[in-house]
């Protein structure tokens, strides 16, 4: 079943994993697995899809590439991208209805297997909670296991910014979420899986990082994951 999820590169604080059997063993020892969402659990980058839907796709896609590669702080990139998109509540809802996120092949089976093994599964995303909750529901992941950014809207539905107090709104935020989860649930072995710089920097406090390149390969992440 695990072979359905391509894992081309990974990193641990003390050693480098080098085989599928070792990766499976890492899953077996995990108390929890934390997944990035955009370009990992789903095929798309949610903010890029929202930008395309709002007619500003090209400008935002380039900024996403820089943010995921680590060449600008995540919060700066998020602020600038949303200032371009300025989506309404109606546009966000219509995006989810007309173009729902597409799950990466194999992810549903992997999450089901982790649940069968009583391994906690969390979604930690720099994307938007309204989209990530839709993904979590598809995968039977409890909504209180979702950590993502919250869009804000005025009473008339127009864009009003985002909740800057969320840890996922900043570089290093995913690591802070994992530290909180370890303390809250008494977790010892936590695996972080993702494709971007914000996922890589979450290890530590994550016990191990598995870089996922099945949808897109970030050169900076691949280089540091070997």
TrEMBL record:
The pathway this protein participates in, as annotated, is: Amino-acid biosynthesis; L-serine biosynthesis; L-serine from 3-phospho-D-glycerate: step 3/3
EC number annotated for this UniProt entry: 3.1.3.3
Q: What class of enzyme is it?
A: hydrolase
The residues the entry assigns to the signal sequence are none
* GO biological processes: L-serine biosynthetic process
Give the positions the UniProt entry annotates as the active site. 36 (nucleophile), 38 (proton donor)
The cofactor required is: Mg(2+)
Source domain of life is Eukaryota
Q: Which Gene3D superfamilies match?
A: HAD superfamily/HAD-like, Phosphoserine phosphatase, domain 2
InterPro entries, alphabetized = HAD-like_SerB, HAD-like_sf, HAD_sf, PSP
| Recorded catalytic activity of this chain's protein | O-phospho-L-serine + H2O = L-serine + phosphate; O-phospho-D-serine + H2O = D-serine + phosphate
* Molecular function via GO: L-phosphoserine phosphatase activity; magnesium ion binding
Give the record's GO CC terms. cytoplasm
- Protein family (similarity comment): Belongs to the HAD-like hydrolase superfamily. SerB family.
| Function per UniProt | Catalyzes the last irreversible step in the biosynthesis of L-serine from carbohydrates, the dephosphorylation of O-phospho-L-serine to L-serine. L-serine can then be used in protein synthesis, to produce other amino acids, in nucleotide metabolism or in glutathione synthesis, or can be racemized to D-serine, a neuromodulator. May also act on O-phospho-D-serine.
Q: Per its record, how is this protein called by name? A: Phosphoserine phosphatase
What is the species of this protein?
Labrus bergylta
């Amino acid at each position: 079943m695990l072979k359905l999820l391509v894992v081309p590169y990974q990193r641990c604080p003390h050693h480098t994993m080098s085989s599928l059997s070792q990766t499976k063993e890492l899953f077996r020892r995990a108390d929890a697995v934390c997944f990035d969402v955009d370009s990992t659990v789903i095929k798309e980058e949610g903010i890029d899809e929202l930008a395309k839907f709002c007619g500003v796709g090209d400008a935002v896609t380039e900024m996403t590439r820089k943010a995921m590669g680590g060449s600008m702080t995540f919060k700066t990139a998020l602020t600038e991208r949303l200032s371009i998109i300025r989506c309404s509540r109606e546009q966000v809802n219509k995006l989810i209805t007309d173009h729902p996120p597409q799950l990466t092949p194999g992810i549903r089976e992997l999450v089901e297997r982790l649940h069968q093994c009583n391994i906690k599964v969390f979604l930690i995303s720099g994307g938007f909670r309204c989209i990530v909750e839709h993904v979590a529901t598809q995968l039977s992941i409890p909504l209180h296991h979702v950590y993502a950014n919250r869009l804000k809207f005025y009473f008339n539905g127009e864009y009003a910014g985002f909740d800057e107090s969320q840890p996922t709104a900043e570089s290093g935020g995913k690591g802070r979420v994992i530290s909180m989860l370890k303390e809250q649930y008494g977790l010892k072995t936590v695996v972080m899986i993702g494709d971007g710089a914000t996922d890589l920097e979450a290890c530590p406090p994550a016990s191990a990082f598995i870089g996922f390149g099945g949808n897109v390969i970030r050169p900076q992440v691949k280089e540091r994951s070997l």
